[in-house]
């Protein structure tokens, strides 16, 4: 920006302000002047905008109406409340499979094997080319991969989509061979690599709560043995230890893998407490407890509550029909959304962490 005489604020202050407005508003502001028109594609500004926006987390979920057999998407923001989220620009009926740094990976409902990566904030999208490889899942009843994951690197401005599953000959049990197909947005191509991963099993929640941190995708293994990590650039798997208290602790606890301000985090739920762990050092795998939260105020909801995303300020959780937020500083609970009437699917089943960024996907 040019510094003009009589300007009320220096250019850097204006950029800092604009980096905090919603993406939709930012695109509307393009008509103000030529400089503002170029902002969404300016490398310095998009980096600044994404650095600010990644500090906030929202929750996206599908709200289904069992009586009318239709569904809609909601976005729950800690400050702005609830708004509708539309993916109509895809011109297809889709469901969200995974979210990462402002991008969503969606699968087509009418046409199996068709996937999109989109940015709902900018309405940009890319329809992924079909892989020439045989589907990872050709012998599975639902025809879908065990894992569908998305890694969006805001620094490099690229993304990877990973589809993985155990190889299984028809009528046979999986043989321990884990097949991965990786889509690279820079090459616009799929690549395949095969690994031997024995005794790896995933629950629905562990598949949903894949976390991209330090250039790796992470999944919590059922049985709470370890965290499985994939280096998406080099196709290398790694096992990461959980805190000793979780690995050797009470089997009645439930544990969920999340991200916390760029760090790996696990949330441990018991009948009366929610304990938040954070990995302070990724290489040495050092975990520390950063918060212990009483669940006495929501005791009746605890058996069916699931943490979805968090920041240092708040935690979003979902039940069958509600979205709750816990404010960590004030130690207060608040209901952000509640389904009216009957719902065919629980909110926690379709809930994902979401950020509003200018991440490119086309």
UniProtKB/TrEMBL annotation:
PROSITE patterns: FBOX. It comes from the Eukaryota. Residues 3-52 form the F-box domain. InterPro entries: F-box-assoc_dom_typ1, F-box-assoc_interact_dom, F-box-like_dom_sf, F-box_dom, Gal_Oxase/kelch_b-propeller, SCF_F-box_component. Gene3D superfamilies: 1.20.1280.50. Pfam families: F-box (PF00646), FBA_1 (PF07734). This is F-box domain-containing protein. CDD domains: F-box_AtFBW1-like (cd22157).
